[in-house]
Amino acid sequence: MLLIFWRLFGHKNARLQPGGHVVEKRRETWSKSWLFVLAAAGSAVGLGNIWKFPYLAGENGGAAFTLVYLGWVVLVGLPLLIAEMIVGKASRLDPVGAYRKLSGGSKFWPWAGRLGVLTGFMILSFYSVVAGWSMAYVFKALAGEFNGFTTSAQAALAFDKFASSPVWPVIWHTSFMLFTITIVSRGVKGGLEQCNKILMPALFIILLGLVARALTLPLASEGVAFLWQPDFSKLNAEVVLIALGQACFTLSVGMGVMITYGSYLDFGAPLVRDSALIALTDTAVALLAGLAIFPAVFATGGEVAAGPQLIFVTLPVVFNHMVLGSVIGFFFFLFLTIAALTSAISLLEVPVTYLVDQKDISRPKAAIGVGLLIYLIGIPCAWSFGPLKAYALGGRTVFDWLDYLSSNLCLPLGGLLVAIFVGWRCLPLARFWFLASVWPEPRRAPTWLWLVWWLPVALLVPLAIIVILVAKLFGIG
Ligand code: TRP
């Protein structure tokens, strides 16, 4: 481990200081357009797709929920994705600097960026704990620890024992943060690109393999029907709101990840096409994850509506019932860990880019400093399932609070701000960048083309988010 660290940081520093001093600070850029798309897709595809989407769809009417969710992805998620990328590309700065620059030095707007930086801290600290569980399960699967699990009750017991331990979840959380910090400290070309180039294809191959295995199980069709049979009677206001929240979280919009990633573009990237590609990839992974999980759960008589537990409690039983279950289980949790890692990188990248751009701190220093702080906040999150379980404030543990506040307050607020910013505050600029990405001569583009994006981003998104926020605040959602 030490050797790896030495190599990574030694190498980076040597490159940073040719001849012993830094002549001019130049902003790194993506080396290829598709590597940017891959990284953004890597950010979008994460824990949200793999356990949250199938579970939510299962609980809220299957295909009916899926349809509403797809509608929100197109009407809210995609316009916000484009909006964030435009802010990043037009400013070529971190979210705080981007808002300041594009608003012409306003005092208010940089706070939208600061909110994003703070949200990154909050999300990553609990995200890393769950990712750590997933990492632990990679090894548990391989070690054959699922052998002999015939009921989910047994698996639940084993999960509780693991998650409530004061030591193991923290150790895995530590390892996961070390990986994340190492990659981010290496920068865009040396870290983010290299990592996504290897991990994203690996993720797709593993996912396709799992779907193929799941669909050939007995009773697979019941699982497919469960996920796809529309039950419109389950649709209500709350379900529509849940679907909206999920559409934003899963696309990583609302805290400036896409501003940050967009800021590393230096060529005329077709932002609209790229955003569509990212949204499509993200949705495909969510749907495929559902196809991999539910047939398997049905085939082994598992509990479908188990929520966050689904993966850690139901699936080990599923794997125990399968031929080559340890191997499949190993791949599944590897897949989950990879997906979480490429998302975690994007979460850490936001505060790190902020420190590098605004405070002139070197990238490795920023990554280690921020990473360490997030790591420390993560410890009480990891203990929320064990030593600190009894110390809940208002019925929520530290883990629950960070999850609740970030997903239900900070992200929607961040989305609302970016929508108002591009839709109203910086309208001419945003209009230019949007049209430049879809039309050869932006100034001669037809008006309807612009409206296709402006109407959702300036009117529908703020309206939808204000409704969701008010509903949440008053406890309706
Ligand atoms: N989209 C990721 C997932 O589905 C999580 C994530 C990464 C995220 N970066 C984000 C969510 C930024 C909101 C904002 O798991």
Structure characterization notes:
With 477 residues, this protein is mainly α. The chain has 19 helices and no strands. It is globular, with a radius of gyration of 22 Å. Bound molecules: tryptophan (TRP). The site of tryptophan has 17 residues, from helix 2, helix 3, helix 11 and helix 15. Tryptophan binds at residues 43-44, 46-49, 123, 249-250, 252, 254-255, 257, 343, 346-347, 411.
Give the SSE layout:
Layout: H1 2-16, H2 33-44, H3 47-59, H4 63-91, H5 95-102, H6 110-142, H7 152-163, H8 168-185, H9 187-215, H10 220-228, H11 237-250, H12 257-263, H13 271-299, H14 309-321, H15 325-359, H16 363-383, H17 398-425, H18 427-438, H19 447-473
Helix pairs in contact: 2-9, 2-12, 2-13, 2-15, 3-11, 3-13, 4-5, 4-11, 4-12, 4-13, 4-17, 4-18, 4-19, 5-6, 6-8, 6-15, 6-16, 6-17, 7-14, 8-9, 8-15, 8-16, 9-13, 9-15, 10-13, 14-15, 15-16, 16-17, 17-18, 17-19
This protein binds tryptophan.
